[in-house]
Amino acid sequence: KTASYKTIMPAAGRARGMFQFFHTNDISLSYLMAFQCITDYTAGTLYALDVNNNTWKTLATGLDPFHMCGEQFGLKIYLVMGSAQPRKWWHGDTSWETILPRLMNKGGIAVNISDGTTPVLTWNLTTTVTSNLNVNSYIGAGYYIRKSSSSSYWDEVKTVSGDGLTITLMTASSDTGASGAGTAQRAALCGAVAGSSPDYPLLVKVWKNKLWMACDMKSESYYSRLYWSVTNDGENWSGTGSGFIDIGDNAGGEIITGLGTLDDYLFIFKDQSYYVYRWTGDLDEPIELVRTFNYGCVSHRTIQNIGGALIYFTGSDLRMTNGNEDKSLSD
């Protein structure tokens, strides 16, 4: 309804993407994410709707307007934005006013967590780091911390205790010992995806506990490339279980236009064809090609799961597929 629409949408603009974030432990931290461009498509804004309070939060402005695709993986949303490097957004950071510049391996400027006084943090090769002072004012869930400016290990914070003296990490630290110059930074909250992820993918999909990205725009030779991450780690693109393949013929620079999933099948669409891959579970070759169809998809946004089928739009025809057969819904 028009009246309801006007009461909740943040501003006039052209929609370029909408996706949901559901917190697995606290439903009050769930958001509806929406991306809009201003009327001339020169810039875009990412919003989050706080469903409980019916209020919009502006998360980022001045974004690449060409494309916006987002997927939730764990407690982060992974975003791709046209020619921008893939980003991630941590649910706890609702004051994200701008996306950081491209970062490499959780880089960026590390700042002391101390402010006048210096907490002493102690690592012990487990998921626990202790502090002699309350650090709640300096770091929080989603931050990365390291023992010293020369340390090569960055540890992601899972929680900080109420008294600020115990920091629980996502995984056991590789560091040990105490340091009075612990550093922390917010790259984990709203920075680039760490590791050797694709540089400029247009598409992102979560499937089989992996993050999948496709159509790397860094050059024409990567337009048909599909990447997958290590299982349960959307920021590890070089470890065991990660990999990539080129889909079909890349002649003429035909790009991957969409990704869809249906049970054990992964659908990879191009302009004039699509490829059906089946999940094998193999560590090195987790998918295998089982079928090819001579119908294309005009946009990733048209791909929808309905019942036991996948619906997509060719540009002139609305079609339905289950991976074994394909038929027009216009017949």
Count every beta strand, where a strand is a DSSP E run of 2 or more residues.
Answer: 27
Pick out the low-confidence regions.
1-7, 95-110, 186-190
Radius of gyration: 22 Å
**CA(first)-CA(last) distance:** 31 Å
Put simply, the count of helices is: 2
Mean pLDDT: 77
Helix percent band = under 10%
Structural class: mainly beta
- Secondary-structure element sequence? HEEEEEEEEEEEEEEEHEEEEEEEEEEEE
What is the molecular shape? Answer: globular
Please state roughly what percent of the residues sit in beta strands, choosing from under 5%, 5-15%, 15-25%, 25-35%, 35-45% or over 45%. 35-45%
Main sheet makeup: 8 strands, antiparallel
Query: What is the spatial order of strands in the main beta sheet?
Result: 8-15-11-12-13-10-9-14
Question: What can you see in these coordinates?
Answer:
This protein is mainly beta and 331 residues long. It is 3% helix and 43% strand. It has helices at 2-8, 187-190; strands at residues 14-21, 31-37, 44-50, 55-63, 69-73, 76-81, 84-90, 111-112, 121-124, 128-131, 144-146, 155-160, 166-169, 176-179, 183-185, 201-207, 210-216, 225-228, 243-246, 256-262, 265-270, 274-279, 287-293, 304-306, 309-313, 318-321, 326-328. The chain has an eight-stranded antiparallel β-sheet with strand order 8-15-11-12-13-10-9-14, with no helix packed on it. Strands 1-2-3-4 form a four-stranded antiparallel β-sheet, with no helix packed on it. The model is unreliable at 1-7, 95-110 and 186-190 (pLDDT under 50).
